[in-house]
Amino acid sequence: MLRMSIGHTLLGLLESGPRHGYDLKRAFDEKFGHDKPLHYGQVYSTMSRLLKNGLVEVDGVEAGGGPERKRYAITEAGITDVQRWLATPEKPEPYLQSTLYTKVVLALLTHRDAADILDTQRAEHLRLMRILTDRKRKGDLADQLICDHALFHLEADLRWLELTSARLGKLAKEVLPS
């Protein structure tokens, strides 16, 4: 599962200029949160942490009909932190302990039909691929790129499903006690 640094993303969004929390949420959701929008509470708790760590500062406070609205600005330390984060490569996830692999082995160990598990998973992958392909076709370039990323991962999973199906008999001999 990919994990996005919400704090670094919000800091990066602040580099274009000071913003209120609700503006940050809207910008985040528009650019990165199509499938998982941020909750307002998450924005404000993240901003509070960034403020405490000296990565942002309050650029202004506006009184309104409701609670005070703080406008946040990134600090030099925040800019340096974003730059360091952007320059640090993400650790590739090798998926050496995948839940799917565990299910296949457990099915074999408990004398269940592992081929059914693989078939069911293949159908689910194909269903999601159809949804992503449709979204990609209708989307803008940003949506096309994120869908391509997901589709490539799903294609790799499908290759693994096919390979595992072909080797299921041999795997059963290795994992089942003689």
UniProtKB/TrEMBL annotation:
Residues in Transcription regulator PadR N-terminal domain copies: 10-80
InterPro entries hit by this protein: Tscrpt_reg_PadR_N (IPR005149), WH-like_DNA-bd_sf (IPR036388), WH_DNA-bd_sf (IPR036390)
Gene3D superfamilies: Winged helix-like DNA-binding domain superfamily/Winged helix DNA-binding domain
Protein name: PadR family transcriptional regulator
Lineage: Bacteria, Bacillati, Actinomycetota, Actinomycetes, Kitasatosporales
